[in-house]
Amino acid sequence: MSWSRRNFLISAGAGLGIIPRIQKWLIICTATLFLVWNLLGIPNALAVTNPVKTNNVQTQLISENKAIQPGKPFWVALYMKIRPGWHTYWQNPGDSGSIPKINWQLPTGFKAGKIVWPHPERLPFGPLVNFGYENEVYLLTQITPPTNLPTNKAVLLRGKADWLVCEKDCIPESANISLTLPITSTTPAKDERWVTAFAKTRQAIPKPIPWQTTATANDTNLTIAVNAPELQSGQIKKVTFFPFKDGVINNPAPQKLNFTKDGLTLNLERGYQPKLSSVDGVLVIQEKLDNQSVTQAFNIQAKIGAIAATQPKTAATTSSISVWQAVFFALIGGIVLNLMPCVFPVLSLKALSIAQTAQKSAKEARISGIAFTAGVLVSFAGLAIALLTLRSFGQQIGWGFQLQSPIIVMLLAYVLFAVGLSLSGVFIFGASLMGIGQNLAVKNGYTGEFFTGVFATVMATPCTAPFMATAIGVALTQSPPVALAILLVLGFGLALPYLIICFVPALRRKLPKPGAWMETFSQFLAFPMYGAAAWLVWVLTQQTGSDGLAAVLTGFVLIGFAAWLYQKAQRLGKIWRRVGIFGALVAIALALTLAPIAGNSTIKTAQQTTKNSVWQSYTAEKLTEIRQSGKPVFVNFSASWCITCLVNERVALSQPEVQQAFQQKGVTLMKADWTNRNATITKALSSFGRSGVPLYVLYPSGAKSQEPIVLPQILTPDIIRNTLNQI
After folding, report:
1. What's the Rg (C-alpha) of the chain?
2. What 8-state DSSP symbol labels residue 653?
3. DSSP 8-state class, residue 191
4. By CB atoms within 10 Å of each CB, which of 37, 132, 494, 613 scores lowest?
C-alpha cells in the first residue's frame, strides 16, 4: 500500500512543470499529508461514494455519519435524482408500478433494516392514480455493524438497487451502489454534506398520529375520523390518505374532506378488498402556518368501528349517472324486462289478456290495462318496501331475494302448477281466474288482470335486464322515497307495452278476432306454466336436495287432487258441493304444511360448483389470492332461479370454443352461486353497483394492472372472445 502511494506522489510531481509555483507547493503538501495520514493508519474524514447515472435516474448511496462506530447503528440513504417529468414509486405503488428494492451485500456481521419511506404524492396517470415520488427522494435504511469491528480501517458497503421509473412509458432500471466508510472507536461526526437532506427526509417520514383516529365502513364507502378540534378548515389546506395495502380504497376516487366540531373526517371510496378489519396507512396533512405551507405525515392504524349496511348517499358518490338518468334507465329496463327469459312463463297469461282486448269496448280495455298496471305497481311497491326494510336492518340481500327462500320457491311452484291446471280446464274457480274464465268479457276479469300484474312481477324479479341493473344499483343508494320511486318506474316500464295496447284503438283493431280458437289457445298456454313449475322444482332441488324434491312433488299431487275434487263437487248437490270444497281446502292445507319442510332442508349450493372441475366456487379470499398471483379471473355471478343466467351458461359459457378461449388466456373460472342467500356475494354485487344476477366480471392479469371488465347481461360466444382479447 505504501509503495503504491509513493509512486502516485512521484508521478504527480513529474507533471508539475506546467503548473504555477504556488500550486505546485499546495499539491505537494496535500499529497504529503494524504500519504502520512494513511501511513499512520488514521481513517479518512469523508466517506467515499460514487454516483451511478442511468438514463432516467441518478443514484448514490450516502451516509449520515462520516465513519462507523462498532456496534452502533447508523443511517444511510439511497438518493435518487429523478429525470424531470418521470417518477418512481412508494411502498404501495397504487394502481400500477413497482416498489424500489435494495439487495444488500454487506460485510459479515452487518445487518440492514427495512427501507423507511417518506410520504408519497398522488400521481394521476389517465384513469389511474399511483403513489410515488418526483424530482428526488432519499430512501433511508438503518445499518447495524457488529461490535467486534477493528478500528482505524475502512469498510465497503455494497448493494444492488432496482426500481421502476415511469413517464408515459415505464422502464425498469438498476444500479450497483457502494459506499466506503472508515471505522472509528469514538462517536463519529455527521457528514455536513448530507445533514440537510437527512433532516428534510425525516420531516417527511410519517410519525405516530397524536390524535384519536377511528374508521367506519359500509359496502362502498370508508370514513376516517380524526378527533382533533384544533384542526379546522381555516388552518388545513388538504388531507390525503395513502393505504399501505392495495385495494383498501379506490385510488382515483376523490378524497372528500369535511370538518366537524370534533375535528375532521375524510370520506373515501372503498376498493376491491372484500373484508376490512382495520385501516392502515399514512395520513398527510397540509397546514397553513404563518403564511407558510407545512406538510406533516402520520401513521394511522384505525380498527373498523362498524361495518354497516349501505347508507343513503347521493348518486354522484356512487355512480356517474344522476337520479333522473336512473329513472330513465328504470323505464327502459322495465320495458326490456318483458323480453327476458324469466318473464316468458307469464307471457302466456298476458297474451291471452291482450287477445281479449280485441272484443272489449274502449272503456273496458282501458280499465283492463289500468288494472294490470295497478297489479304490477302494487307488487313492485311491496317488493321494494320489503327490500329496503330488510337492507336497513343490515340484511345483505338484493333484487330477486324472495327466490332465495325455498319456501317462496315452493309456493310459487304450487301457484304455477295450479294456473296450468286451470288453463287445461281441470277446474275453473268462479267466473275468472287470473283473467281467464268462461265469459271472457265479464267485469270480474278486472280482478284477474290485477293478479296477472302481480304474477308478472313475481316472475320478472329473478332477472336483471339491460339498463335495469344500473337503475336498481342507484336506487339502493338513495333515500327510501327516491328508491321507491325508481323501482315503481321500473314496474311501470314492465306494464307499459300492455297499457299502450289497451289505450290505443288502432293497435287493438290489429289483434285477432275472438272465437273458438281462444279456448284451444288457452289450453295450449298451460304448458308454459307446467314448464315454469318444473323449473322451480329444479331450483328447489338445488336449494334443498332430495327432501325438498319429495315435498314439492307430494304437494303437486295434493293440489291436483284438490283441483279435481273441487271441480267434481260443482256438479253435485249443495251438501256434496260443500264437502268437496272442504276436502279441496284440506288437501291444499296439507300441501302448504310441506313448505316448511323444504325450508328447513337448505343445502350449501357453493359446494355444488365443485362438481364441475372447470368452475371453482367463489370466495372473496380466493379471488384475491388468485389475482395476487398474477392470473386473470372470470367470475360468473349466477343463481339457479335466474333463467337468463342458465341460458347464458348454455349458449355461451359452456360452448367448447369459449372454454378453449379461457384456457388459451389462462383464465381461472369462478362461479358465485347466489341461489341461496349469501352475504359475501351480495356485497360483491354491490361493489359493482348491482343488486341482482346475472353479472359477469373479467379481472385482467395482476391485482393492480387494470380495472375489472363487466360484460353484458346477455352473452354470446363472440362477446366473451372479444372481451378476452382485451387482456
Report:
1. 37
2. I
3. -
4. 613
Contacts of 615 (CB under 8 A, 6+ apart): 609, 636, 669, 670, 671
Burial class (CB in 10 A: 0-12, 13-18, 19+), 70: middle
Q: Which residue has the cell 293497435?
A: 507
Provide the angle, in degrees to the nearest 10, between the axes of the packed helices 344-356 and 480-503.
Answer: 50
Q: What are the beta bridge partners of residue 697?
A: 635, 710
Share of the chain above pLDDT 90, in %: 25
pLDDT 10s digits, 21-62: 555 554 555 444 444 444 444 444 456 677 899 999 999 999
Kindly state the cell numbers that stand for 275: 373484508
Angle between helices 574-593 and 546-569 (to 10 degrees): 170
Q: Which residues contact 275 (CB under 8 A, 6 or more apart)?
A: 620, 621
Cell digits for 175? 444500479
Q: Give the C-alpha separation, 384 to 404, whole Å.
A: 16
Q: Which of 89-93, 430-434, 539-543 has the lowest average pLDDT?
A: 430-434
pLDDT at res. 399: 63
- Please choose, from the candidates 48, 58, 71, 73, the residue with its C-alpha nearest in 3D space to the C-alpha of residue 156: 48
Q: Which amino acid is at 713?
A: Q
Quote the CA–CA distance of 105 and 111 in Å, as a whole number: 10
- Cα–Cα distance measured from residue 184 to residue 70, given in angstroms and rounded to the nearest whole number: 8
Angle, helix 526-544 to helix 406-423, in steps of 10 degrees = 160
Query: Strands, DSSP E only, in 54-169?
Result: 57-63, 74-82, 87-94, 101-105, 111-112, 121-125, 128-134, 136-144, 154-166
C-alpha span between 271 and 287 (Å, rounded): 28
Question: Hey, what's the cell of 283?
Answer: 395520513
Report the half-sphere exposure of 451 (CA within 13 A, side-chain side): 12
Using DSSP, state whether 272 is helix, strand or coil: coil
**Nearest residue to 608 via CA among 544, 683, 667:** 544
Q: What pLDDT was estimated at residue 658?
A: 92
Taking the CA atoms of 567, 568, 573 and 575 in sequence, report the sign of the dihedral they define: negative
Contact in structure between 15 and 23 (CB atoms under 8 Å): no
The pLDDT assigned to 473 comes to 67
Please give the residue that has the higher pLDDT: either 45 or 369.
Answer: 369
- Residue 117 near residue 100, CB atoms below 8 Å: no
Q: Between the CA of residue 507 and those of 246, 495, 503, 522, what are the distances in Å?
A: 58, 16, 9, 22
pLDDT of residue 598: 64
For the purposes of burial, counting CB atoms within 10 Å of the CB of 204, is it exposed (0-12), middle (13-18) or buried (19 or more)?
middle
Checking if the pLDDT of 104 tops 80, the result is yes
β 52-53/57-63 pair status: antiparallel
What number is the average pLDDT over the span 573-577? 81
Highest mean pLDDT among 255-269, 349-363, 612-626 belongs to 255-269
Say how far apart CA 275 and CA 684 lie, in whole Å: 11
Q: What is the Cα–Cα distance from 727 to 218, expressed in whole angstroms?
A: 31
